[in-house]
Each structure stands twice: as structure tokens, then as C-alpha cells.
Amino acid sequence: MFSRSIARSLATMAEAGKQLVKSRLDDGIFVITINNPKRNNCVGHPTAKALVEAFERFEADERAKVAVLHGEGSNFCCGYDLKEVSEGEFVGADTEFLAKYRYMGPTAMSLRKPLIAAVEGYAVAGGLEMSLLADLRVASSSAKFGVFCRRVGVPLIDGGTVRLPKVIGLGRALDLILTGREVSADEALSIGLTNRVVEEGKALEEAIKLAKLIASHPNACMLVDRASVYNSLSAPSLKDALDFEYNEGVSVLNESIQGEYRRALKFMSRDRAKPKL
């Protein structure tokens, strides 16, 4: 009886999650939207599962070259939905999901393709951790970052202690993690927490532009270079990192050579088409 009740609850949550996360593919760019603005795009269990499903679709769809993650409305994400916990809505018995993923959903995933986070408003606590899943972050001028969960005694369990030092360095990461202080968009840019600061309300638009630029380049070459960068962070030695870079690069060198050849032909044909003076 109890197990059937849990199963029904999980099914209901899965249906709710479909409304809380939206996704669309547009010209090679896979846009994922956290659609819970009334709760500042906080992530509950239904949203976490729906986010995982969206990222799995992105990874599986060869038409999708780059993903952009953003929050509907004025905030990116303010972390886990503690109201869900306080109201007893959280189903902690979903151990199969939590064994593979995390409370925020996809934060334990190792994505094969690039992800850009478009940050408006607050990206704090688990929302900060979610933004760190991305390769790049584009923030509006009013964006705010921070380990706000420090203030209420909730630990970072969605990759924050792992990814933040790799993005901004150990000392700066410890500053944010230990103090729980707020970080402005300008400071985030200065410490490398965000890659671009744009006009308020333009983060998604600019992130999509950046995604299209990335997607316009030969794909296989870009993917192996990206993989080599991440591999270098945990490679046992410099030699291992260099060997990985070389072996992965050689595997797509043919595409690169063909791409350069096509560009050379295009350049020469354009040059021949110029009128003689």
C-alpha cells in the first residue's frame, strides 16, 4: 500500500515537472527554461526530474549543438524549494533518482556538449551550483550570485564545492562558500564567475547569440578540444593530459583539414570574383 502511494506521488510529480521545465530546439540551440517564477525558479523534486529529462534530450539529439539554460521571469534560480520540504511534499524515497542525480537534478551530469547559463536576477545556493554546471555564464547587470544556503545551515551538495574552486580559484571560492555573501554581476565578471555582463533583461538573448557563434564552428573539433580542457583538470599527470589532447585531436583532424580546405576554396573563389582594376 505504502509503495503504491509513493509510486502515485512520483507519477503526479513527473506530470507537474513537465509544466515546470520547458525546452525547445531552434537552429541547433537547445533552450531549457526553469518555469517556476512564482517560487523564484526554486527547484523541487518534479523540476529536478524534468531538468534531467531535458538535458538527456539535449545530449541525445545530434541536431542540438549547444544548450542555453535560463529561468523564466526575473530570477535564474534561488536554489532548492525549501517550501516543498517544509510542506512535506518531497519524496525522499526516490532513492533510484538520487543515487544517479542530485536534489537540483542534472548537477551530477557530465555533459558532452556545451552549456551556457543565462543569468537574470538571483543565482544563489543551489541556483549558483546549477549555473556552475554550465561552461559559460552570461549575466545581466543586475544579476546576483552567492552561497546563500550558508545563512540557513544547508550544505552545498550539488557540485558547488567541486566546481566553484575550478572556476574562480580556491581562495575566492572559499570566500564565497564560508561567508555566504552576495556577489554582484561586476564582481562576478572580475573574478571569472561570469564570462559576460550584459544589459538587464538581455541575458537570454546574448547567451543565444554566443551559443550560435559556438555552434557555427566545426562541431567535432570543438567537442574534443572542450573534452581535453576538462580532462586536464583531473588528469594524473601532464603527460596524461597531453596524450589525451593529442589522441582526441588526431581523431577529428580529418574534419579540421577538410574544413580548412573548404574555407580556402571559398576564399580563392571570392578573390577570383573581384573585378579587375
From TrEMBL:
GO terms for molecular function: catalytic activity. Pfam families: ECH_1. InterPro entries: ClpP/crotonase-like_dom_sf (IPR029045), Enoyl-CoA_hyd/isom_CS (IPR018376), Enoyl-CoA_hydra/iso (IPR001753). Belongs to the enoyl-CoA hydratase/isomerase family. This is Ech-3. It comes from Pristionchus pacificus.
